[in-house]
Automatic annotation (TrEMBL):
This is Right handed beta helix domain-containing protein. Residues 1-25 form the signal peptide. Keywords: Signal. It comes from Candidatus Faeciplasma gallinarum. InterPro entries: Pectin_lyas_fold, Pectin_lyase_fold/virulence.
Amino acid sequence: MMKFKRALALVVMMCTFAMVLTSFAGCGDDAASNEPHEVAYTVYVSPDGNDETADGSKENPFGTIEGAKEYVRGLKKNKGDIIVEIADGFYELDETLVFNEDDSGTTKCNIIYRAAEGAKPIISGGKILDAEWVVADDVDWLEDGLVAYKAPLERDDKLRAIYVDGTRAEMTRRTATPLKAVGFYSIVAGQADWAWISSSGTTIRTGNVFDESFGLPADTRNPQNIELESGSTWVKATVCAQDLEVTEDGDTQVNFQMPYAAIAQNLGWNTNYNPTASNDVINVFEWLDSEGQFYFDQAGSMLYYIPREGEDINEAQVIIPELEKLVEVSGSEPLETYAQYIIFDGLTFAYSDWNLYELDGSHGNATTQNCTIYTKYSDVYWHNDLYRAFDVAPAAVHVSTAHDVDFINGGFESTGYLGIHLENDVYDCDIIGNFIAYTGGGGITVGHLQHIYENDTEEQRVSETSAGPDKEKFPYGTEAVPKNITIKNNYLLENCYFFPGNSPITTFFTYNLTVEHNFIYKCSYSGMSIGWGWCNFDGTEGSQLPGQPTTTSRYNHVNYNRVEEICSVLQDAGGIYTLGQQGNEDWTDVTEMSYNYINCFREPTVADGSRMVNGFHPDEGSAYILFDHNVVTNVIRNVYELNDWMRKHDCIVTNGFSNTDRSETTAPNCTLEQYVNEDYIWPVEGYDVVLYSGLEDEYVDMVSKDVMPDDYYELAANVSIACGELLNRRGLLEADDTVWLAPAGTTEFEECSTMTTAAGNEKTIQIPDEPGEYKLYIVYADGTVSGESEFTVYAGENTSAVNVSDGRTYTVSKMSPLELEIKDGYTVTVNGTQAADGFIISDAGEWEIVATSDADGETQTYNITTEVMIANTLLEYDMTVGPGEDVPFSNPANDASLVIWLAPSGLSAFDEDDPTQSRAAGDATSMKAPTEPGVYIMTVVDADGTILSQSDAKVTVE
C-alpha cells in the first residue's frame, strides 16, 4: 500500500541551511510596511452623496471616490491616517480612477479607502442597463419553450459579455474545421511600427472557408464582431472577421481583419492562429439558441438574451461592461516619484471590459504563452527579441511605480481580462484576503516578461537583426523588477474564462515574492505560473546571451497554498508551474515551494500519462528550487516533472506525499523523496499539510460550503494514526457544536472505546482507543447531524497484506510494472498461481490476488485490472539506435488515424522538421529515429494532436 523513496544527498541539508541563513536587504527606508497610525481624518462616500455640495462629513458625503480623492489631496499628511469610508453601493465609473504621488500618503499617514463596516461596495467598470425587455419575435427558431428577449442598447463597439444578476452570459459559439484557407498577405519590414520583419508572402492567409452545412450565414448581422479561435496544447489564439461572402460552391468565406490576423498567424510552437485547424466561431446572431446566451446587434442597437430557468429578465440586474481599466495607481517618474502608502480595504473591483487587442483598426488576441499579447510582426522565435514584441494583457486594476500600496479584504470579479497587475518598479505591496472570481484572464499578475534584465543596454541584443533595447517597454533608467510582494489568503475561483491559457496567479521576474495560503479552485490551465525566461537566458553557451545570465528572479516563496481542479481546457501544465532559474548557483536566494496541497482533480484519476497534467511542472530552465512537504494527488502525467529537458537542474524534493510514484527526476542534480499511498492515506505529517493548506481561519468564509463543507476543515484527508493520539483540526465550528469520530454508519453517539468527541471550536480530537476505521460527524447545536465525512481515520496498524486495493485499475508497462509487496506471514496467489514478494505484472488483464494468513488461515481477496497504454505497446523496452535508423514497433497499432512521434520528454507541440523529433503514421510497423543524438520517448497523438499516451521506455540515439 505504501512506499518510501529516498534519493537524497548531503547537499539537501547544506541547501536548507543556506536558505535559512539568507537574509533580504529591503529597499531603503521604504522597506517598512505601512503601519497603522492614529486616524487624523475620516472622509465619507455614499451613492447618495453629491460631489458638488459635499464637505466629506457623514451627513454630507461625496458621491464618488473621485470626488473624495480630490478632497483628500488638500489634507495634511503628517497628523495620522486618512480614512475614506465608502458606504455600501454600486459605484459606476465613467473613467479610470487614477492615483499618483499627489494622492499618496507618507510614512506618517496611510490613505485608506475602506468599506464601511458591514458594507461591500462594488467599484464597477460596467453600467446597469436601464431598459425594458420585450419578447424578440425575430428570434423565431427556438425550441423546447425557450424565449429570447431584446432591449435597446447603443454602443460604439461589440460586446463580449453581459452580467445578469452577477452571472456572465455567453456569446454564441460553434466548432468546425474549415474546408480551406484562402488568400495571401505580405508584410514588408518598416511599413508600419508593428512590422519589424518581412513575411515570406506564402505563410499568411487572409481568410478561410466553412462548409455550407456549418450554418454560418454570409449575410449575418455585424460580421466584424465575429471571432475565430483556434487552440494549441497550452494557449488559444483569436482573430476577427472583416466580412463574410458566399463562395461559388455556396460555402461561406470569412475574410480576416488585417493586420492583426497576420500577426496572430506568426507564432511558434503551434501557438499561432491556424486557419485550417478546428476553429470555434463565436458571436453569430443566428446561433442564439441556449439559456444564458446573449447577442448584441451593434448595427441595430439591440441586445438579445435568452433567460436561464427561473430568471425574470425584467426583474434582473443587467450590467454592461464599458471601462477597460478601473484603477491606475502609478507615480509619474519611475525610480523617482512614486504612488505610495495607499490602502484599498474591502472594495470589490468588477465588470471591466476588453474587446481584444486593437492594431490599425483590426482586433484579435494571440500569444505564445500565458497572459501576454503579441503586438508586433517579429521573429517567430520570441526569445531572440527578448519578448520585446509582447506585452502583458490589460488589467482592471494596474499598479506601477508604486510602493506600500495594498489591496486587502476586497475582490476582483467579472473582468474583461486580468484582475490586478503589479507591473514595473513596484515593491512592498500586499494583495491579501481577496475574493477573485470569474475573471476573463488571470486573477493576479506580477511583473513583466521583459524584465529579464533591468535597464537594458546594447549588450542585451541577440544579433544585429533582432530587436534592441530601443524596443523595450521600459526605457533605460525606468525599469525595476517587483520586490517584496505578498499574495496571501486570496480565494481565486474559476478564473480565466475568456483566455484559458492564463493561470489564476502569474508572476514573471520577481524578488522576494511571497505567495502563501491562497486557494485556487477550478481553472483552465495551470493554477500558478512562477517565473519566466525558460533556459534561454541562463547565460550558458546554448542561451540567447552567453555569459549574461538573468538574475532578476530570486528568493521567492510559494508555500501553504491549496490548488484544486486544474486544466479543465488546456494542458502541458501543473498545479504550480515554474520557468527559469530561481536562485543562485551557491544556493543563496533560492526559491522555496513547500507545504502546498495540489489536488489536480477531486475525482480519483489514474496517472497514465495521457495528458500533461502535473502536480509541480518545473519547465525549461527551472533551477535552485526547494520543494518540501507538499501533498500532490490525482496527476495524469507526473507528480514532479523533473525530466532532463532544456537545462532544468538543481531542484530538490523532500518529504513529499502522493497517491502515485509517477515522477521524473532525470534532470541534473535533482532528487526526490516521497511517500506514496495509492489510497490517499497519509501519515499525520502529510495530513497536516492538507489541513493547513489554503486560506487561514480568518478568511475561510469566502468559500461556499459546496466547495469546502465543514468536515473538510475538521478531517481534511484520510489519515493513519495511532490509537489514543490527538488529531489536529481547524476547529472552525461553534463552541456548542460537537464533533465525533465514530465507525461508518453511526447514528447514535456516545463516548466509548470506538467513539470520541470534542467541542466544535477545539483544535484537536482524540483518536478512539480501539483500532479501526472511523468517520467524522458533526452534531450541530440545533441537533442536526452532518453526513459522515468524506475522509477516514485509520487508527492502529495497517492490516492489508499486499500493496494493491480491491477494484482498482493500474496502468503498467514492461518498463514500469506493478510489483507486488507482500507482508510477512502471508501466502499469496495471483490468478491461482503462487506469487512471491516482488511478483511482476506488466501486461493488461484482470487479476485475482488472494492473500492467506499463515497464522490463522484468514484470507484477503483483491480483484484488480491492469491496462497498458498504446505508446507502451509500441515501445516496450529501452533501445539504442543510430541517427535516422529504424525503430521497430513491438506491437504495431494498425490505426491510420493516429500519429506517432519520437521526441524529447516534456514536449506537447511537435515539429517534423526538428532534428530531435521524428514522425510515423499510426498504421506503420516501425519509424525512423531522430537524426540528432539524444534520449527520446514515444508519444502517440490523435488526429487533432491530442496526446493519448507516452512511453515509459526510451530510445537512445548515439
